[in-house]
Amino acid sequence: MDGSATTTRTKVTAIPGDGIGPEVLRATRQVLEAAGARIEWEEAMAGAEAFRKGIGSGAPKETLDSIARNGVALKGPLETPVGHGEKSANVTLRKVFEMYGNIRPVREIPGIRTPFAGRGIDFVVVRENVEDLYAGVEHMQTPGVAQCLKLITEVGCERICELAAALAESEGRTRVTVATKANIMKLTEGMMKRVGERVLKGHPALGHEHMIVDNCAHQMVIRPEQFDVVVMTNMNGDILSDLAAGLVGGLGVAPSANLGDGVAMFEAVHGSAPQIAGRNLANPTALLLSAVMMLRHIGDFATAAKVEHALYITLEEGRDLTGDIAPEGVEGVGTDAYVARVIANLGRESDKVPTREYRPIAMKKWPAITWYKAASTRELVGVDVFVESERDPHAIGITLQHAAEGSAFDLKMISSRGAQVWPEMGGNTFLVDHFRARFMFREPPKGDAVAEITDLLSRIGRQHRWMHIEKLQRFDGEAAFTKAQGEG
Length: 488
Ligand code: NAP
What we know:
about 500 residues; ten-stranded mixed β-sheet; 13 helices; 18 strands; about 30% helix
């Protein structure tokens, strides 16, 4: 679509959601309709109403079918009931449709007072949306020690970094920062760093750099105008995208998109704000800006620009704004009056809207197959056995050495929360009842290596509770495990 009048309408699933959701969605639809967006809305339900009806996922099948059919959704916030064991309906939607890319534009908005106003902040956070600690694979290892698996895949890193590059190219941006904690988590965050660098080399027109994520948080606060596109794993991206939203006015004005193969869902970053629901107080700016992203996604660049300009003019002039963003000393108006003002401003142009040559995001297709990565060689070199013990490391070391006698293994070291405590290194590592014992094969196993591990476990089990093991492998000659702090 080139933005000129067309006869076809794009079908979009509209999910009003909870709390202020129906109000901000209605307001957004009014502006889009007044701007001439050629959209046919298909309303669908999700969130609290679904949970009340006993749908534990928070999203009924009809809603999922509608999104699958239309491929585009505009969504109000959905409440997550606390303490009833229900899953978040938002997470359900992201996971069901594998919307792996969370796009969070961070741009200074005229008229929105912040300590950073006037700095020209204009960047986009691209957050991986489905992997990492948010896979939610958690176990209590002992009654007092919990574990959450940080699952990072090579293909997951590849597709989010490709998306970051495609997004940069679609907006005429020139630089991508890959922010990771690779200095500490060499295999997981390190994978994001390595893959990011490789992927971005394939986009030579884009500059790229790696930044350690804690420094990235610091840089975002002291010199936010340096960033263009920042790509991160899920949890880092979750935290830093909210920090970034705070720089330009907070969650109330922060838009977002969730992108997957063939499916895109646009939503405000804020929640359902139940305290102000139904009172004509809600600010629809964040959802309106999300709708602008949606219009660009469906190729209607002209209507997107028209709505964006009207919104910017309204905010710049500071007349008829909702209470949360009204200029100091000026009384806020209701959602309806604010929307009426935006509509009245349609057709006017703001010189504060950055000029960008938007193009559709050329998203790479990722076939729905089981991604299998072969290694030309694999060696099993040992095993980490996690044991629960109230004894001290010296005593545990003696018992585990004893357990290993007659097995195929030698005890190499014991660590407590990642730091070697046997053989003793000095220092005063705080101890809990959770230890990792690293056993290495004395010589490369010739027969059934798994049977050797089973034998070792049964020997250990006579004296200790073990709750978890990890094979220690080498893939293509490279160690597929990290060393403990202090391990030689
Ligand atoms: P919230 O709904 O974002 O509300 C926090 C406060 O922010 C509100 O009380 C209100 O402040 C202000 N606010 C947020 N959006 C506003 C808007 N559009 N206009 C004016 N003021 C706005 O956060 P929450 O209270 O933590 O979460 C409430 C529910 O929303 C929870 O059930 C949560 O799970 C859900 N949630 C959903 C999503 C989503 O669907 N993507 C995201 C986040 C949270 P004042 O008190 O100053 O009026």
